[in-house]
Amino acid sequence: xxxxxxxxxxxxxxxxxxxxxxxxxxxxxxxxxxxxxxxxxxxxxxxxxxxxxxxxxxxxxxxxxxxxxxxxxxxxxxxxxxxxxxxxxxxxxxxxxxxxxxxxxxxxxxxxxxxxxxxxxxxxxxxxxxxxxxxxxxxxxxxxxxxxxxxxxxxxxxxxxxxxxxxxxxxxxxxxxxxxxxxxxxxxxxxxxxxxxxxxxxxxxxxxxxxxxxxxxxxxxxxxxxxxxxxxxxxxxxxxxxxxxxxxxxxxxxxxxxxxxxxxxxxxxxxxxxxxxxxxxxxxxxxxxxxxxxxxxxxxxxxxxxxxxxxxxxxxxxxxxxxxxxxxxxxxxxxxxxxxxxxxxxxxxxxxxxxxxxxxxxxxxxxxxxxxxxxxxxxxxxxxxxxxxxxxxxxxxxxxxxxxxxxxxxxxxxxxxxxxxxxxxxxxxxxxxxxxxxxxxxxxxxxxxxxxxxxxxxxxxxxxxxxxxxxxxxxxxxxxxxxxxxxxxxxxxxxxxxxxxxxxxxxxxxxxxxxxxxxxxxxxxxxxxxxxxxxxxxxxxxxxxxxxxxxxxxxxxxxxxxxxxxxxxxxxxxxxxxxxxxxxxxxxxxxxxxxxxxxxxxxxxxxxxxxxxxxxxxxxxxxxxxxxxxxxxxxxxxxxxxxxxxxxxxxxxxxxxxxxxxxxxxxxxxxxxxxxxxxxxxxxxxxxxxxxxxxxxxxxxxxxxxxxxxxxxxxxxxxxxxxxxxxxxxxxxxxxxxxxxxxxxxxxxxxxxxxxxxxxxxxxxxxxxxxxxxxxxxxxxxxxxxxxxxxxxxxxxxxxxxxxxxxxxxxxxxxxxxxxxxxxxxxxxxxxxxxxxxxxxxxxxxxxxxxxxxxxxxxxxxxxxxxxxxxxxxxxxxxxxxxxxxxxxxxxxxxxxxxxxxxxxxxxxxxxxxxxxxxxxxxxxxxxxxxxxxxxxxxxxxxxxxxxxxxxxxxxxxxxxxxxxxxxxxxxxxxxxxxxxxxxxxxxxxxxxxxxxx
Length: 998
Hints:
Elements: H1 4-11, H2 24-38, E1 44-49, H3 55-62, E2 69-74, H4 86-99, H5 101-106, H6 112-118, H7 145-166, E3 169-174, H8 181-192, E4 200-207, H9 217-225, E5 230-234, H10 240-251, H11 257-267, H12 271-280, H13 291-300, H14 304-313, H15 322-329, H16 333-345, E6 349-352, E7 355-358, H17 361-369, H18 375-389, H19 399-409, H20 413-429, H21 433-446, H22 453-457, H23 461-475, H24 478-491, H25 498-515, H26 520-530, H27 537-550, H28 557-572, H29 576-591, H30 593-596, H31 601-616, H32 620-636, H33 640-656, H34 663-677, H35 681-692, H36 698-714, H37 718-732, H38 742-757, H39 759-773, H40 780-795, H41 799-815, H42 821-835, H43 843-860, H44 863-879, H45 883-900, H46 903-916, H47 937-947, H48 952-959, H49 963-977, H50 982-991
Parallel strand pairs: 1-4, 1-5, 2-3, 3-4
Antiparallel strand pairs: 6-7
Helix pairs in contact: 1-16, 6-7, 10-11, 10-12, 11-12, 12-13, 13-17, 14-16, 15-18, 18-19, 19-20, 20-21, 21-23, 23-24, 24-25, 25-26, 25-27, 26-27, 27-28, 28-29, 29-31, 29-32, 31-32, 32-33, 32-34, 33-34, 34-35, 34-36, 35-36, 36-37, 36-38, 37-38, 38-39, 38-40, 39-40, 40-41, 40-42, 42-43, 43-44, 44-45, ...
C-alpha cells in the first residue's frame, strides 16, 4: 500500500521558487558562522525579517548537507500561552525518532538519570522526577525547582556536546518571536555557554515586524547582541530586479515587464507575497490587495470539505497530529488524508511525520480570522473535549497544557479554570516557571466567574495564591511574588493558621531581600514567633536558615540560638542533607573570633563532617557549599595553596553533578582569590575570563571584575581598571552593603583615584565611601585591607582632610577584631602607616614598624604586599638617613615587582633608588639584559612559544588559557618590545636577551 503521508510531503514542496533569490550576503553570513564553528570557535547567527521574507528558506536552501547534522525546532504561538520548550521538545522528538531513546540515553553522562531530566521535555526518554511545586517545598524531599531546572538545562547542553563530538551540529530555533519564556531562557543559556559546545552552530530566526516595543524577545536580542560570537542579519525585501528573477524562477519563463511591475507593486518585494500572488491566479487583476484576502483566495479554491477541515486546523497552533484532527473533524485518518490532499498539493498545508501544519503561519491566521462569530469557541471546545477523552492524541505530557489553551480560547470559564490549574502543575514538573505563573494568574482571574471554583479544583483561593507565590519565586518575579504573598497573608487568620502565615512571611522576606526593600528581618522574626510546636520540622528549618542567611551580623546573640535550633531540627527529622547544611552554618559561627577562642581547627572539622554527610546523602548543594566555606576559611588564614586546591576540587564535584556552569562558576572566585594573594595574576585573569564567558549572576561577576581591575591597576592599565570599577559599581549600587563585595570595590576606586587624580581625590573618594558604608561592621577580614589602604591614601592628602580621615580610620580600627595571620598583617601595615606619617617625628619607629609588616607579609608569601611594604620601609630608612637599609629593601623589592609586572610599583622603586643613589641589579636596569623591557612570568612563557612559531591557538592549548587571553599577551609583548609583527618580536626578544632563560 502506498505511503499516503509520504506522497503528501513530496507534493508539498511544489509551487514555490526552485532557487533562492537575492540572498548572497545572508548566505555568506551563514557560511561564516558555520566556518567559525568548524574552526573551533563559538558562533551564533540571529536572522530577522518580516513575515514571509524567507528566513526559513534561507536556512533550508543554503545549509550544507555534509558534514552537518541539522537539529531544528519551531516555536509555536501556543508557547506563550502554556506550551513550554516547544522547539527543544521537537528536536528531542526528532532525535528519538531517528536514533531511538536508548541511543540518546547512552550519550548522556549518568545514562538514565540524566535522561530522566530530559524526560521533562519528552516523556519517551523515561519517567521524569516530579517535584512538589507547592509553596511548602523546602528542598529536603523532592528536588527544588530551580535546581532541577538547572539540571534540565545542563542535560540538554551535555547532549548537544556529545552529538557534536560525532559530527558538526547546527541547532536551529525558528520563529523565536513566539518563544515562551522557558524556551527563551534555555536558548539564552545555550548561547551564553556556547564556548562549551565546540562544533555546535546556533541559528535563530524571528519576525522583526512582530517585535513591538514591549515584546519579550527584544531584551533578549539586545543582551545576546553584546556577546562577541553572536552576529545578526536582517533579511530585507527583494528589489524589483530580484522580484523579477523570483517570478521567472517560479513560472519557468521570462515574465513580461507589466506582470513584474504589478507583482512588485502589490507584494512590495516580499517573497511569500509574490509566490502567493503568482499561485493565486494567472492574472493579478483579481487578487485582493490585503494579504489576508490573498491567502484566503488560495484557500477558497479548495473543495468545501477541505476548507472545512482547514478551518478546524486553524484553531490549533503549529503542527496538529492527524489523529487529533481526525477526532475533532469526525473523519478517519485515511479519509482525512484524502480531504487534505488538495491543500497539500496547493501548498497551503505541509505534511510531516508529526501531522499537518500551514505552510506559513500567516495562512493559518488568515483562515482563523475568517471564521464566523461563535465558530472559534465551538472548535476550541471540540479540541479540548477530544483531548480530554483521549490524551494520547497529543504528545505525552502535553494534554493538560494544550487543553488549557483550548478551553481558555473557547471562553469556557469553568473548564478554563480547571484546566489552567491542572496545566500549572504540569508546567511545574517541566520547570516552565513563567508558564506556571501565567496559568496560576489565569486561575485567579477566573476565580470569581466560577461560583464553586474551590470545589472544582480541590484547593481554596489562598492555596492558588500560595502556588503563585512559589512560581513567582522560581521565575524571579519578586515584585509580583511580594504582591501575591501580601494578598495571601491578608486572607488568612493568624490564630487559625499560624504555620501557613509563617511560611508566607518567610517567602515575603526573601522577596523583600531580593528587591532591596526593608522589613525582611522583621518578617522572619514574626514567622519564627508564629510557629507552633506542632509545625513540621522542615518548615522550621527552612525559616531558620533563611533568618540566618539574612543577617548582617553573625555575632548577634540570637544567631547562635538559631543555628543550634536548626541543627536540632535537622537531627530530629533524621535528614542528613539538612544536618549537613546546619553543620556548615555552625562552622561559620565557630570561625568568628568571638566563638573560635583562638582555634582554627574546629570550623574545618565541622566542614569535613558536613561534607561527609552530604556525600552519603548524595546532596550536591551542601557538598559544594562545604568546599566554598572551607576555601574561604583557609584563604582568610593565609593557607592559599590549600584554599585554591579545595575550591578546585569543589569545581570538579560541580562538574560531576552537572552544575559546573552554575555552582562551579561561584567556586571560581574561591580559586582566584588565593591566587591573587600569591601573585599568580595571569592565572587569576585566565580564571576570570573563562568564568565571565559563562555569563554568571552579577554577584559572581562583580568580585571577578574587581580582581581583574586591581591587577590591571597594579600593572598600569588605568583604562581597564576604570572599566572594571564601573561594571562592579553598576551591580553593587543596587545591592545592600555586604562586607565581601563593597569594601573590595571601594579599594579599587580609592586606588584608581590615587593613581589618576592624586591623594586629595583619593581622600575624597574614601571619605564618601566611609559615609556610605557606615563602618565598622562584622567582616574584619574584608575591612582590614580597606582600612589600611585607605589610611595610606589619607597619609598623602592635605593636612586637614588627610588627618581627619586618618582619625576616622583609627577609631574604626580600634573596634575591629583581628583574627589570624592575614588580618594581623593588615593590622601591622595600618600601624606602620600611622607610625610613618609626616606628623610622626621618629623615622626609626616608622622603619621598625614597616620591617615588622614586611616580615608578616613574607611569611604569608604575598608578593605585592611584601614589595610594597619593602618600598615603604626603604622610604622610611632614607628619611632616617639609613641609606644601607634603604638599598637592601629596594634591592629585595625590585625583582618582586618586576616578576608581577607591576609597572607603577617598579617605577616607584626605580625612582626611589635613583634619588638615593642605589644601584638595582636585575634585567630591568642592566643594559643588554632586556633593555629595560619587563615581562611578566606568563608573558615570558608566551614569548618562548611565540618565538618557536606557535599560533595563538597553540599557545593557548600549551598554557591552558583561552585563545583570546593568548592574543592579549602577544599584543602586550609586541608593544613592550616595540615590534609590529610576531617575527619581528621574536627577533627583538633574542637581541635583548629576553629568551636567554626561557
